[in-house]
Amino acid sequence: MSPAAPQAMGLLQDRPEVRFGIHLTLVRDCAQDRWEPLSPKTAVTSLLDDTGLLRAFTPTGRAELLARARLPEVEREFRAQINAVVDAGLVPTHLDFHCLADGGRADILDLTMTLAAEYGVATRIWLEPGRQKARQRGLPVVDHDFLDSFALDIADKAARYTQLLHDLPAGLTEWAVHPSTGGGQSKTIDSGWRVRRTDYEFLISRQARELLDQEGIVVIDYTTLRNAWVQAGPTPTEQ
C-alpha cells in the first residue's frame, strides 16, 4: 500500500461529503517506491518480488505478477486493503485497480466483483470483456470507452475538452482526469504534473460549468452505480 494512504484516509474522514473508491493495489508505481502489502508477507508471497515488496509497474513486473499471483493471496490482500478503509469508518462507493485495467486477469476481475457484492459497492470496469460480463449479470457499467487525460496533448487541452463535451454521445461516459495544482512538491516527484495542472485549470473553469449546462450533461459519481449494483443483488456465483 502507498505510504500516503493513511493521509488520504484522514482527509476523507475530515470530508465525509467526498465520494471515493478504493484503489486496490498489487503493484508499486516505480522501482524507487517501497510499497509493501497490508497482509503478512509470508501469506502473499506470490504477489511480491525478491525484496519482499509489491512488484514495480514495469512490463516485466506486470507480467511476472499476472503470471505468478495466486488468487487466494490476491483475495487476502484485497480484503486487507478494503478492511483498512472500512475499519477507518469510511464508506466507499466502488472498487478499482491501480495500474491494472480490470484487474489484469479475468479471475481477478471476477473476485473483485464478488468482493464488491459482499461489501455493498460497485466495481469500476471499463474494458469491453468486463463490461459484457457485468451487463450479463444486470450490473450497470459505462457505455463508451473511457478517456484518460494522460492520453491528451497538454497544448490546447481546454479546446480539446470543449470539443469532446460537444461530441459526447448519449449514455454513461467516464473520464479519468488527474487534477492537481502542480505545486513544488508535485513538480519534484511527478513528471506528469503538467497534465494534472491543465486538468485542474479546465475542471474549475467557468467555461467547463457553462459547457455542462449548455450540453445538458449530468455529472454523477459512483454512488448511483453502487446503488444499482446493490439492488441487483449477488453475482450468480454467490447465490
From TrEMBL:
Listed InterPro entries: YdjC-like
Superkingdom in the source lineage: Bacteria
Protein name (Swiss-Prot/TrEMBL): ChbG/HpnK family deacetylase
Organism of origin: Nocardia iowensis
Top-level taxonomy: Bacteria, Bacillati, Actinomycetota, Actinomycetes, Mycobacteriales
